[in-house]
Amino acid sequence: MTTEKTTSRSAAPFPRGVVFTPVPNPLLAGLLEEIDDIAELKLTLRVVWALHRKQSPLPYVTASELQADRSVAAMLDVTGDELEAAVMTALKKASERGTLIAVPAGDTGEERYLLNTEPVRAALIGRGVKIAESDAGPWAETQQAAARPELREGVFKVYEENIGVMSPLIAESITAALQEHPESDVIDAIRVAVEANARSWKYVMAVLKRWAVEGRDNRETRGLDGKPERYSEANRSDEFIERYLERQRARGNR
């Protein structure tokens, strides 16, 4: 006689106001067909959930975090040493599949696990972390971008040295900007933002937009001595850039 497993939930599992977690589409399509280990699949989904909840420019989880997670223990149905082994095995499989990237965490000796997306790889490369070719994730938008030398030592480095820590979203924006503008222009635009005391990627994009419309030569103005001089504080109020930033603010992009 076959018995069905019942649930103790008396109400709908997804009530009104339930919070949603974004999941990469391939994890619900091709990868879902490919993953044949239920522990790997469950742990991967839990990692996606955990990373989404973290307020960090480059979120990661560790094995110890997952081993201390009551939900992980319940869904794998193991405890103690068996739980530790099951978590490590699932993380290893996810890393080998390319859904996660394992990065050594310096002095702690504990690896950090990150979702293997193009922005995450680009941000890691910008910080000097070596990413193997095999780490090009299964949902990479542009796998070639991670191998470009200017992303390792050019724009990303200039951005972090002059504006601030680079989040995956900023890394993605920089990658997109490099597809539309020469590297030298992007670096020059970052310098313009710094000189104008407007250290934000939004301002850099406004400068690039102006150059695309008015021409690259207009990125410099002439001083009283006839020599080129960079944008001054007065140039910061440039009508084109201000209109662009105003439109961004109106769209909620602050």
Written account of the structure:
The chain is mainly alpha-helical. Among the domains are: 31-115, Arc Repressor Mutant, subunit A (Orthogonal Bundle), CATH 1.10.10; 181-254, no CATH class. 49% of the residues lie in helices and 6% in strands. It contains 12 helices and 5 strands. It has helices at residues 30-34, 38-53, 63-67, 70-76, 80-97, 118-126, 149-153, 155-162, 168-180, 183-195, 201-214, 239-250, and strands spanning 61-62, 100-103, 112-115, 221-222, 228-229. The protein has a 3-stranded antiparallel β-sheet with strand order 1-3-2. It has a two-stranded antiparallel ribbon with strand order 4-5. It is elongated and about 65 Å long. The termini are far apart. Residues 139-152 and 219-237 have low confidence and may be disordered.
Give keywords.
single chain; 254 residues; mainly alpha; Arc Repressor Mutant, subunit A; three-stranded antiparallel beta sheet; two-stranded antiparallel ribbon; 6% strand
Beta strand % = 5-15%
Radius of gyration: 23 Å
- Percent helix range: 40-55%
Distance between the termini: 61 Å
Structural class: mainly alpha
Going by CATH, the architecture of the domain at 31-115 would be Orthogonal Bundle
Overall 3D shape: elongated
What fold name goes in the CATH topology slot of the domain at 31-115?
Arc Repressor Mutant, subunit A
Tell me the quaternary state.
single chain
The ordered H/E elements are HHEHHHEEHHHHHHEEH
CATH class of the domain at 31-115: Mainly Alpha
Specify the number of helices: 12
Count of individual beta strands? 5
Mean residue pLDDT = 76
Q: Uncertain segments of ≥5 residues (pLDDT<50)?
A: 139-152, 219-237
Strand order of the largest sheet: 1-3-2
The largest sheet, given as strand count, sense and whether it forms a barrel, is: 3 strands, antiparallel
